[in-house]
Design brief:
By secondary structure, the protein is α+β, with helices and mostly antiparallel strands. The protein contains three helices and eight strands.
């Protein structure tokens, strides 16, 4: 036996049709609403992610996610940013703040220390059919660093751009 669950709009229309005739049913036929899952899916698809696991970053984490709290490019400790809080996600450029390993001029990775970092996700567009930020870079403003759109990680292709 097949059980059919009627929407409330259809149930009202059915009752109205039985009580007042077919014109009431026709009037209420357009009163249904779109299922919530379709609406949620459409808005979810429009939300960009941060790159994808590819190339040099194929063993990383945080890529392929929207507003990741942690990004790791899979390399040494300088490739990790954690505790990221984002603003402007979905816009042309998203900015986050988090904690990353800071290595001063002339220092080795072993002497690095955790410091507040600014993360910028940019080059919003499609990569292999997915809406994403195709570039990401982080820097330490308190140490005189600033954002440069020519030096970044291409997280669509999985390569470094302008740094090596």
């Amino acid at each position: 036996m097949i059980s059919v669950r009627l929407s409330s709009a259809f149930a009202v229309a059915r009752t109205a049709a039985l009580a007042g005739g077919l014109p009431a049913m026709i009037l209420l036929a357009g009163c249904g609403s779109q299922p919530a899952s379709t609406t949620q899916t459409a808005s979810h698809q429009a939300r960009p992610v941060l790159g994808r696991l590819a190339g040099d970053f194929s063993h990383g984490s945080g890529f392929g996610q929207a507003e990741p709290a942690r990004i790791f490019n899979g390399g040494d400790p300088t490739g990790l940013v954690s505790k990221i809080h984002w603003s402007g996600w979905g816009g042309r450029r998203a900015t986050g703040t988090g904690m990353a390993e800071y290595i001063g001029p002339g220092q080795s990775v072993a002497t690095g220390r955790q410091a507040k970092a600014t993360v910028v996700a940019f080059h919003l567009g499609r990569c292999h059919g997915t809406l994403m930020y195709k570039a990401v870079e982080w820097f330490f403003p308190q140490h005189g660093q600033s954002f440069s759109p020519v030096r970044y990680e291409n997280v669509c292709a999985g390569t470094f751009h302008g740094t090596h």
